[in-house]
Specification:
Length: 359
């Protein structure tokens, strides 16, 4: 993609595809992959030992860099806690724990190209020859026609995953012809430790807020993290934040006990998008969703919550959580899968609701 000045706050990217010449576009919607591993027997675990077992964290940064080349993104920065390594990428984030990796990439990245090399790395370097579970998901892209071939239709992504996993199961929640969310996972009972993931995918976001996440606004990434209230969403985190040139913002936050949250912002008016993701356990996420949407003030957003039986959020997935003011929940679906419950909701701002003036 080339950069040009469209005369707004933010320089945006020109699509080089001749059919769409002159159009400005960046796909903020991320592809999200999470894989949990284990050795098939304790003796097959290799690599340096962490807590008596091999760990994905022993894999060298140079190996991750090579792996990410397949995806068309690179590492910008990293932070480390006692339980997790968080990498900020040119297109989103990667979190590596002892036996789980989360890879989240946006734009035109080819995330699925990383899966096979990743399984190889985990096996060769850590002795992880057992795949405990896999989750691959994304919201419908704003412009699927601009994605690389495999990613234009979920069926094709599923077909690629099915070449690697025997018992894959693919679902779609929401309206197939409007806003929806696709997920591929393994049809098995497996992860026994408490596990939950909340995602908030915000669209058509308040432009006054979005204009702050540009170089021309004049604040640094860490000043923005503080001023906008991102720092206070879940306090006490190790933060890694990044402001792109000329606009765009990404941050990873490492919390105690293997918890994290991550935020990515595509501020361009024509296709603004903000994502929030966390694995903090809760029996209600209303306050958290309200805090996040109060900061960004989207006109609509999707919330997905996935939690397994051991999680305090398991039951919440099957019932309605309270309202998120001032939004209307215009769609809601709850699913019972083998080991996980799953909740999908679409919220929209009523036309009469005024935006809160930004401080
Ligand atoms: C912050 S990144 C991550 C996007 C994220 N997935 C989201 O939720 O929007 C994307 C934003 O940064 C901007 N950007 C600037 N330089 C970029 C680069 N080298 N790679 C990716 N994005 C870049 C894009 O135009 C876009 O606004």
């Amino acid at each position: 993609m080339k950069n040009i000045e469209p005369g707004s706050h933010c320089t945006i990217s020109v699509v080089e595809d001749p059919l769409h010449e002159g159009e400005y576009f960046f796909e903020g919607t991320e592809k999200l992959l999470e894989i949990w591993f284990s050795p098939s027997s304790p003796s097959s675990a290799s690599g340096s030992v962490q807590g008596g077992r091999a760990s994905l964290r022993d894999i060298n940064r140079s190996e991750w860099e090579l792996l990410l080349k397949n995806v068309n993104c690179e590492i910008l920065s990293s932070r480390h806690s006692t339980t997790m390594d968080a990498y900020l990428l040119s297109e989103s984030s990667m979190f590596v724990s002892k036996d789980r990796i989360i890879l989240k990439t946006c734009g035109k990245t080819t995330l699925l190209e990383a899966v096979k090399p990743l399984l190889g790395l985990a096996k060769e370097q850590c002795g992880f020859d057992n795949i405990v579970d896999v989750f691959y998901s994304h919201k419908n892209y704003l412009r699927p026609d601009l994605q690389p071939e495999t990613y234009r239709h979920f069926d094709q992504e599923v077909a690629m995953l099915d070449t690697l996993f025997e018992d894959g199961a693919a679902y779609v929640l929401g309206k197939l012809n409007k806003d929806c969310w696709y997920i591929y996972t393994l049809d098995r009972f497996n992860i026994t430790e408490p596990d939950q993931t909340l995602e908030i995918m915000m669209m058509d976001v308040n432009q006054d807020v979005m204009n702050m996440f540009t170089q021309s606004y004049g604040l640094t990434a860490s000043q923005l993290t503080e001023k906008t209230g991102i720092l206070d969403i879940l306090p006490g985190a190790i933060i890694d934040d990044w402001l792109f040139e000329p606009c765009g913002y990404s941050m990873n936050a490492l919390l105690p006990n293997g918890r994290y949250f991550t935020i990515h912002i595509t501020p361009e008016d024509e296709f603004s998008y903000v994502s929030f993701e966390t694995n903090v356990p809760r029996d209600s996420y209303n306050d958290l969703i309200t805090k996040v949407t109060d900061i960004f003030q989207p006109n609509k957003f999707i919330v997905t919550l996935m939690a397994n039986e051991a999680s305090p959020a398991y039951k919440l997935c099957l019932k309605m959580d309270g309202p998120v003011k001032p939004f209307r929940r215009t769609e809601h679906q709850a699913c019972e899968m083998k080991n996980y419950n799953l909740n999908y909701a679409l919220y929209e701002r009523p036309p009469t609701s005024k935006l809160i003036p930004y401080k």
